[in-house]
Amino acid sequence: MASRLDKTQHQGFGTAPVFFTSISTILGAILFLRFGYAVSNLGLLSCLVMVLVGHLVTIPTAMAISEIATNQRVQGGGVYYIISRSFGITIGGAIGISLYLSQAISTAFYIIAFAEAFRPLFPLLETYGIVDLNLRWITIPVTIGLIALVIYKGADLGMRTLYIVVGILFLSLLSFFAGTTEFAQELDKVDWYGHIENGDSFFKVLAICFPAFTGIAAGVGLSGDLKSPEQSIPIGTMLAGIFGMVVYMFVAYKLSVSASLTDLESDPLIMTDISLWGPMVPIGLAAAALSSAIGSILVAPRTLQAIAEDKVLPNQSVNKWLGFVTKDSGEPLNSSLVTSFVTIVFVLIGDIDIVAQIITMFFMVTYGAICLISFLEHFASDPAYRPVFKSKPIISLVGAVMCLYLMFKISVTYTMIALVFMVILYQMVRRFTPNKEGLKAIFQGVIFQLSRQFQIFLQKTDIDNEEDHWRPAVVCVSRNTFKRFSAFNLVKWIAHKYGFATYIHLIDGYLSKETNKEAQKDLERLIKISEASNSKVYLDTMISPSMTSVIAQVIQLPSVAGKENNMLMFEFSKKNNDDGLKQVIDNFKLMSVTGNDICVLASDERNFGYKTEIHIWLTPKDLENANLMILLAFIIIGHPEWSNAKITLLACFPDAELEMRREQILKLIKTGRLPISKNNVRLISRADNVDIKTVINSTSQDADLTIVGLRLEALKKVNEQVFYGYDDIGDVLFIHTAQGKDIS
């Protein structure tokens, strides 16, 4: 099957077709049929404002299209290609279907407008006995004839016809501007504010007239047939947009000074009475409507064919059928047939105002998406985004915001229907399309920029040095990641809501090509695990032959919070005495250099049990660790997996101190607003000759996590024996605080 996206299929058109396709659609049916209505209902000044407001959408869109087109190779599908290659096939496909419908319905709109050009002949025909005339007598045959010609001759016929009708269009405008009326000769001064009583609202008039401005993107649809789309699209599109806006303003002025408000309101073809040669206006209307119809019927099938090429539609047989192009001319035959059917359906509706408002909503969605893409590309600052033509991000943002604002102002009902329709389309495409790439890349850039700015802001504010604003920024190092997940789970709980966490999987050895590949594979495994567990932990791997080297690097790592890390965590198995614990202990002095808190997790086979109870043990010798122990317990139960957990605080002191300690602990809980019930504060009397480990083993057998203080003095005396002897309880977290934490 020949591909419409293949550059070899290009017809080799230059910039002129882009300009003429766009300008013939801009200066089309609305200009001749509804601008008198606009001036009479709004007044001249408000009408000029309406033109400016409409172009606050279309000019930013034109600039965004030109920008994106000069950054990438724009192929068949035009605007759809730009959206899908920037936002990805999933979102691009949904917007592309909406865009296609707007283009196909536009064809019907222009054919109805073409028929309106023959209304001046109706009185003449009635004199010959032809009465009860209906525009469908014209629209149906014209639709069939136009479809047949385009399918038979394709884009080449369209371009040749386009030049002829554009010439007629300009002659009709010259005739209009050259004409005058008695009203104009008798006018003393321009009435900038006058309008008819009880006229339509500003936004209703805008909804009806907005399709006139949408032609600005019509030429982009020919991208697959252009010799140099990256050059032709920006020049042709921008020229058409600016030229069209200027012409509309002059037309509004000419109408207001040439006819009364009543005549402007009642006569859709009032320009005929103003024109130097009256018949030139219906001829120009017919030419403009016909050229716009040709442009739309050329572009719409190419958009649909490009959508099918990307396999966006649910059924692959349908995609293949719609993606078919003829071998000789490369025309999207089947897509043209479908477009013809859609066109005929809306031609039968016959009401130009209803069709205009439907088109407006579809185009607003499309243009808003294009402007949003341009803004996000600027914000993401991707080095790969290097357009030759550069817009300003604020201009694109204005275009996107204006689209959404105008949609709601025009009609909340229509807007909600359009948005629901887009959501349904998105879900359909998301479910069935095999290619979901694209969106990820642009939003990764946006998130990167947001993260970078936030990190710089946090670093400058330096709030983490205030004790009452402390939050954990923990780095966990483990070589046993794929043997047990206890350490990963613990940092996942800490990072869920209140803290930040970096998890580093340690690979023993020296950095080489082979170990680097191993590290990449392990990182991919880690990311899959993280996604499955819905964690908010930053993951990485590190290759090193020495724990000392690892720790030296880790304590200098920047935190994902934009601040320095303030906590180091290590893990070992209670059942494996040779699990690297001694290497960790040997480096405690190095760890203390930067003032980091230190946590060591003794993993048990219970794997945190049912996650319903955490025990915190306080003893006279490690009260300096108490606040951090309580804070971490509070942070851990903030995770949904610990939602049913309670914290039990166990204070083991000599009898003489018990009552005093009780008052201290209860005051601490109250002032610190800690979720610990008075009933969960237990004071245990301990004789001097009783080993604290024995007390903990007998009391915390059913605890899912036991938190114990860690004193460096004890570590120096007995080394790793500090961590052993807790065989009868589950997982144990040892905590040493480097700096005091105020939890009140």
TrEMBL record:
Q: Where is the signal peptide?
A: none
Q: Name one GO molecular function term.
A: chloride:monoatomic cation symporter activity
Ranges annotated as spanning the membrane? 12-37, 43-66, 87-115, 135-155, 162-181, 201-223, 235-256, 276-300, 332-349, 355-376, 397-426
Membrane topology is: Multi-pass membrane protein
What InterPro entries does the entry give?
AA-permease/SLC12A_dom, SLC12A_fam
Give UniProt keywords alphabetically. Membrane, Transmembrane, Transmembrane helix, Transport
> The Amino acid permease/ SLC12A domain covers which part of the protein?
18-436
Q: Which domain of life is it from?
A: Bacteria
Q: Name one GO cellular component term.
A: membrane
Entry's localization field:
Membrane
What Pfam family is a match, any one?
AA_permease
Q: What family does the entry list?
A: Belongs to the SLC12A transporter family.
Q: What is the recorded name of this protein? A: Amino acid permease
Output the lineage of the source organism: Bacteria, Pseudomonadati, Bacteroidota, Cytophagia, Cytophagales
